[in-house]
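Entries read chain and fold; for instance:
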Amino acid sequence: MEKKIIDIGRKLKKEFRPNKMLFVILAGLVVAFGIYSSFYKVDTEETGVILRFGKHVGYSDPGLHFKIPFGVDKVYLVKTGRVFKEEFGFRTVMPGERSSYTKRGLEEESLTLTGDLNVSDVEWIVQFQVVDPYKYVFRLKNPVETIRDISEAMVRKVVGNSNVTDVLTTDRALLAARIQEDVQDILNEYDIGVRVVTVKFQDVTPPDPVKKAFNEVNEAEQQKESMIFKAREQFNREVPRARGEAKKTIEEAEGYAIERINMAMGETNRFRALLSEFRKAPEVTKQRIFLETMEEVLPRLEEIYVMDEGGSNLLPLLPMRSERRGGGQ
């Protein structure tokens, strides 16, 4: 019995030696893996979301960081420094300097019914940025698909409440701003940590069967805007000139009125002075007025006749003016 026990011990000892080596190797691999998995790197455009035993404990900035290995700490990298772009109605095939895009198979996404029951082919983009990486990762299962669904719903809502002319011509920027506001409001309600940077219509065209007619309408609208611009330019040029002329005329009229008033006041004062002298010496004043009047009137006459006081004798005189002129010569 004792011998049998000794044989069993020797056998176990022989089997234990290789198992010990295997254990040492496994332990070394575990330690190496733990050291390797304890470090992680965060790129410049990223933010690390740190979970410890499944609970959010903080964020990590760009650079090299340490974490507790073996699944205790988990880090999710989110690109918070990048602006993401989602395309609707088209897809970019080759991004870069020679980028091209395709619309094949995307008609259901781009064709939109307007408020006046017309169909427009709308291509637009939505740009957004992650402002809260934890909410972006854990609030929704697929936030990008959610953003796409909300954006498409809001475009169909806003375009569906507008006329096709507004969508194709003048109100595109206004409609895009309204869509951006509505999308942001819904995302705020979902609280997924996303900020909408911009919503922009890439291209809005009518369907191919009616494209020619709508292009003519668009050209007419452009001509209308051009004529309005020219009319405003003419208005800005002519109205100030007319206002200047009107002001000049008014100032001249006011000056003329002041001059006439001053003249009238001078004549009034002269008449009052003459009346005062007339009251003092009526005959002398009357005679002086008569002589002054004759002195002013007679030089204007071609011929002069002198009558006596009774009026019975009429004596024609020589044209005194001509004689006066001859004498002057």
In short: Residues 322-329 have pLDDT under 50 and may be disordered. The chain has four domains: 2-78, 84-205, 211-280, 282-328. Residues 211-280 form one domain. DSSP finds nine helices and 13 strands in the chain.
